[in-house]
Amino acid sequence: MLLFLVGYLVVATVVILGQTELLAILSGVIFFMGSLFVFLVVRTGLVSFRKLKELNQNLDDTELKNKELEQFAYITSHDLKTPIRGISSLASFIKEDLEAGQTEDVYNHLDTMQGRVKRLESLINGILRYSKIGKIIPEAVDLNKMMRGEAKNYQDPTAVKFIINGTLPTITGDKIQLSQVVSNLISNAVKYNDKDVCEITIFSVENTYTYEITFADNGPGIAPKYHQKIFEVFQTLEQKDTYENTGIGLAIVKKIIEKHEGKISVESDGKLETKFIIKYPKLLER
Fold it and tell me: Residue 66, SS3?
């Protein structure tokens, strides 16, 4: 501001002295300096606003992550306690049977206890897999090649049939993490299928900014009221002893897709067929 005050005093002096040529030059300089000053003020304001906006976004993200962590810790502790309680109860039953000299049920109790231990181990491994979903290392991922590799894990065509409609895209992302997505979606379709032949159909639709990749199966379907629940950690729709399942596979899928700035949803009427639809960004900038 002092600079502008001095400039205006100089201009006033030039006007008094009648130096018109010098006045034109000084006016141009002052106009330029004023424009530069306004530009710097506006730019500084925009930068400050952007930083403030980013700060607020980071605070919102931190608050959301804290809530997710709190929910994850609660659910984890609950699901880990369940098999531990079961093991403790079975140990008490075995002790009582041995003290009473009744050994008929001891072996059954031991078999059940081994099942509880395996489930506890599966839960712990699931937690580790979920927590290790870290930084994305982007590279070109050919989904056609990835699907062919995954299909080799299911060698019996009379039990599992893969149908790929058209050509799947080559996308940019973390190859290891995306292979987890494909593996989990296919294994879920096979595990819960109630037909003589499990049919899994994969196809893709290209949109302006995304690829819409669909995994459809001919299984029993998922009722609409469970469409959000299935993506939560440790949530299953069956009794936990019915299938060897921790309920973390789809939670891992959702977390990986969202880290890749995509979205996943499910479509099903709960009677026949389930479609998992992934909206995956075409360009993933890091």
Answer: helix
How many Cβ atoms are within 10 Å of 271's Cβ, its own excluded? 9
Taking only Cα atoms into account, the Rg of the chain, rounded to an integer number of angstroms, comes to: 32
Tell whether the torsion through CA atoms of 51, 57, 60 and 66 is positive or negative: negative
CB 220 within 8 A of CB 192: yes
Assessment of whether the complete model's pTM goes beyond 0.85 = no
Would the pLDDT of 189 be above 60? Answer: yes
**Count of Cβ atoms closer than 10 Å to residue 265 Cβ:** 13
Token couple for 269: 């009427």
- H-assigned helices in 157-281: 175-191, 249-259
Query: Of the candidates 172, 171, 183, which has an alpha carbon nearest to the alpha carbon of residue 136?
Result: 172
Mean residue pLDDT of the chain comes to 75
CB 146 within 8 Å of CB 266: no
